[in-house]
Design a protein that fits this description.
The chain has a three-stranded mixed beta sheet. By secondary structure, it is α+β, with helices and mostly antiparallel strands. The longest helix has 16 residues, at about 20-35. α1 (about 20-35) packs antiparallel against α3 (about 60-75). Residues about 1-5 have low confidence and may be disordered. The protein is globular and about 35 Å long. About 40% of the residues lie in helices and about 20% in strands. The chain starts with 17 loop residues before the first helix and ends with a strand.
Length: about 90
C-alpha cells in the first residue's frame, strides 16, 4: 500500500518490460482465483511500470480492498504496490 504518488495510470500505460508484464499477470491470476471477490473486485485494474504495480478501480466492500492489496503485495512486494483502489460503499 505504499509507494510514490504519480499521475493516474491507465491499462494502456502498462510497461512492455517482461518483468513488469509478469508482475501484472501474476496479480491478475491471484485475483481471478479469489472466489471471495465480487464483480467489482475482479474488475480492478493493474498496471505495472518501473517496477511499481498500481491498483485502480472501485470496490464495494472493505474486505475486497484488503484482499486485492494483499494479493498484489504478495506478488510485487509491499513497497512496490501503489494502492489507488476506491471503496465505494452503497
Amino acid at each position: 500500500m505504499t509507494g510514490a504518488r504519480r499521475d493516474k495510470l491507465a491499462p494502456l500505460d502498462q510497461s512492455s518490460d517482461p518483468h513488469a508484464v509478469d508482475i501484472t499477470r501474476k496479480i491478475r491470476e491471484a485475483i481471478a482465483r479469489d472466489d471471495a471477490l465480487g464483480v467489482t473486485g475482479h474488475n480492478v485494474k493493474f498496471v505495472t511500470v518501473g517496477g511499481l504495480a498500481t491498483l485502480r478501480g472501485p470496490v464495494r466492500i472493505i474486505d475486497e480492498h484488503a484482499r486485492i492489496v494483499a494479493a498484489a503485495e504478495e506478488v510485487a512486494g509491499e513497497k512496490d504496490v501503489i494502492d489507488e483502489i476506491e471503496v465505494k460503499i452503497d
